[in-house]
Specification:
Helix content is 88%, strand content 0%. Helix 1 runs parallel beside helix 3, helix 2 runs antiparallel to helix 3 and helix 4 runs antiparallel to helix 5. The two termini are 35 Å apart. The protein is mostly helical. The chain has 6 helices and no strands. 37% of the residues are buried.
């Protein structure tokens, strides 16, 4: 019985790694679609979201099975509970990648600058997400704390972009297009928030305390 329980915990970890990688790819694909004006790539992000949603359901089912059948104690209970919460944030990250891809299908090339900052934000939140998931797998408190601390960097980049684009809205009659790019930046910033939430659940799993 114990060996089966350990094997199912391994399966849970492997599933979370797989889901994490899928949403990393979704973010990367949506940003490549944006930079390359690739509408076919943008459409694929939406199609792949169905797999992300399916993985969320599978992980939730496995967590419930572990909770109900194995009645885990202490740390294992917190790890499984954290996993249940984490996959909700992971699924929402996938949704935001789709949101970005959907905007790519409609917005023209950006002529207003700040694309380097948007690219930098996306690069950094992919790393945050990877580290948040890895901190859960490795039970690494310091890595999780670093993810949480790094959210301030993402927020700063977002506010720089927001300030610049809002000013440009005042200076042009193409405000709707600029607003779409501001929305893209906001979706990326929200992904950073969800990565931070994941890291906070890791802290809970390891210590029993919420950040």
């Amino acid at each position: 019985m114990r060996e089966r329980y350990i094997e199912e915990l391994r399966k849970l970890n492997a599933s979370i790694i797989s889901m994490g990688r899928m949403i990393e790819i979704a973010i990367e694909s949506s940003m490549l679609a944006l930079m390359g004006r690739d509408k076919e790539a943008a459409k694929e992000v939406g199609k792949n979201d169905e797999f992300v949603n399916g993985m969320e359901r599978d992980i939730e089912a496995l967590c419930m099975k572990l909770l109900l059948q194995q009645q885990p104690m202490a740390t294992d209970l917190r790890l499984i509970t954290a996993a249940l919460k984490m996959v909700t944030d992971m699924e929402r990250i996938g949704d935001h990648a789709v949101d970005v891809a959907d905007l790519v299908l409609n917005v023209p090339d950006c002529k207003y600058g700040k694309m380097n900052e948007i690219t930098e934000m996306s690069t950094q939140i992919i790393q945050m997400l990877h580290d948040a998931v890895q901190s859960y797998i490795e039970k690494d408190y310091s890595m999780a704390k670093n993810v949480i601390a790094h959210d301030d960097v993402i927020d700063s980049l977002y506010h720089t972009i927001k300030k610049d684009l809002v000013e440009k809205i005042r200076q042009t009659d193409e405000g709707e297009t600029i607003l779409d790019y501001l929305l893209i930046a906001k979706y990326i910033e929200r992904i950073g928030d969800h990565a931070t939430n994941i890291a906070e659940w890791v802290i809970y799993a390891l210590t029993g305390e919420r950040e």
